[in-house]
Amino acid sequence: MRWRDGLRQWAYGWYAIFLASSGSVSLRAWCTVVLDVLLSRWRVAPLPPLPALRRSGGVAVVTGGNSGIGLETVYGLARSGMRVVMACRSVSRGREARAALLQRWKAGAAVDIEVMALDLSQLASVRAFAAALIARYDRLDVLVLNAGVMALPRYTETADGIEAHLGVNHVAHALLTQLLEPRLRVHDGRVVAVSSVLALLVDRFSAADGPRRWSPACYRPFAAYAFSKACNYVWARECQRRGMTAFCVHPGGVKTEVVRNLPPPIQRGYRWFADWCLLTPAEGASTVLHACLCEPDTLRRQMPGTFAMLADGGARSIPMPSWMNDAAVGEQLWRCTESWYAERDVAWSGRGGGAAR
Ligand SMILES: NC(=O)c1ccc[n+]([C@@H]2O[C@H](COP(=O)([O-])OP(=O)(O)OC[C@H]3O[C@@H](n4cnc5c(N)ncnc54)[C@H](OP(=O)(O)O)[C@@H]3O)[C@@H](O)[C@H]2O)c1
């Protein structure tokens, strides 16, 4: 629509002037986040031609594939001809979601979607899932690290004693990636981490204080979420440096159940606001699918010079602050994350997999 394009250009024009004149990093980050959410609907790019992007025969895993962006990602990957594993913490919710997805297909269409149990709040569950997947499939082409929790109202820990945002959104996904890496390397498989523009709110990063960064006394829900999403990005960059094909995306502001932990009045406001401002889950998933299905070289070309998070179905990339692309920070996060598994994964350390807690 013409008036929308005009308004968008006007808003971005002012925003560009503001960015150029403002010296405050956190103010700029906040403005980016707020503008990103407000303009989600106006920036939505045409969906990539998914039917043309076929990867028949490949195997994909989507964590949190039973709802929101994950569910639509499962749908898109299955439509592209892949065998898809929905990795869900509740197998019954996963099966219900799978049944609903299958109803979208024409009767008789061959669709290969399987539900497997994966609870990212327990590292033992991550190991069990990885072992089951490796036993079942001899290759893995796409691993989508999508599941996430946002803004838990109170300080919460995973079964392994890690703050829940960090544990579920980053540590468990990082362990999963490492366990599945041999299968990913069979056919140049790729990792797609679903992060968020909220990662920009983190202006200080010391991976060393990860699990100790939050305590019941100093806990801030959105800051904990933002930190875990910054870890997603830094981790994906480090995977790239270590020779894996890995991308990080921001799906946009998307109307999903991600707000389920916010106070009910805020959830009601969100739903009202979401209807006219945010993307649908299918539109949000288009960015994830773009990163899953496009040729890696095409994707790399979309992130020239400074690396960035892909957004808007590949039509836009969000430049990330230089510290997030710093190899030393990536290396530090990698080493710390490994030590967090070893220290915290009690079941595994009991079998000699790491140091005792
Ligand atoms: N919506 C947005 O505007 C937005 C913006 C930026 C980034 N994102 C990111 O997009 C991703 C998908 O979120 P969404 O918006 O689609 O929200 P959603 O509908 O709430 O989906 C989250 C998924 O994560 C799963 N999950 C949560 N904890 C888990 C655990 N311990 N083990 C396994 N699975 C777990 C949930 O499973 P259950 O159904 O069992 O709870 C659900 O399937 C998240 O990483 C989120 O941070 C979303």
Automatic annotation (TrEMBL):
One of its GO terms (molecular function) is oxidoreductase activity. This is Uncharacterized protein. It comes from Cyanidium caldarium (Red alga). The chain crosses the membrane at residues 12-30. Gene3D superfamilies: NAD(P)-binding Rossmann-like Domain. InterPro entries: NAD(P)-bd_dom_sf (IPR036291), SDR_fam (IPR002347). Belongs to the short-chain dehydrogenases/reductases (SDR) family. The keyword Cell cycle does not apply. Keywords: Membrane, Oxidoreductase, Transmembrane, Transmembrane helix. The keyword Transmembrane helix applies. Coiled coil: none annotated.
